[in-house]
Amino acid sequence: SGVAIEQAGIIESIAKPSLAPEEVVRQQVDSMRASTTAPSELVTCFSLASPSNRELTGPYERFAKLVSTEPYRQIGVCREYQIGQAVVEGNGASVVVSVLSEFGSGLAFQFLLTKQSYPPYRDCWMTDGVFPLLPLPKSGPDTAPHFKVLPNSIESIEQLSDPNQPADDEAYKL
User: CB atoms < 10 A from the CB of 107, how many?
Assistant: First the structure.
């Protein structure tokens, strides 16, 4: 178990250089799902958010409220989820997560991560933002639930790493 640092809701030791982008996202999704019955489990998700993401979404109590609102709430209450393969370019990565919502519809979210440059998180992949993508077609009553893996957007990673690019008004940080 880790040691809590200056900001409540963060356990510094959860982020590890050994975690691949997909593993970071899986831990965050599992944390969000577990937090629906054990709210303290959300600490893992917040601890794997990058310091710049925490500045925008924190403190922890605010972050907890954010992830309990739509569309992010669907990650926590989903019936099933699937994590796509990371697309890595330099110190940026994009991972698409497809979820089967509590209502049986398909949703997808793009997680954008960067490999951190400064201690205490040097060489750790951490999430900079989560962006809802278009809903996936609903499975009919006679069909098994299915997921489409949407293409990852390298343009978003480049925009994230280029401060001269204008921000996308449709993007929501998580």
Answer: 22
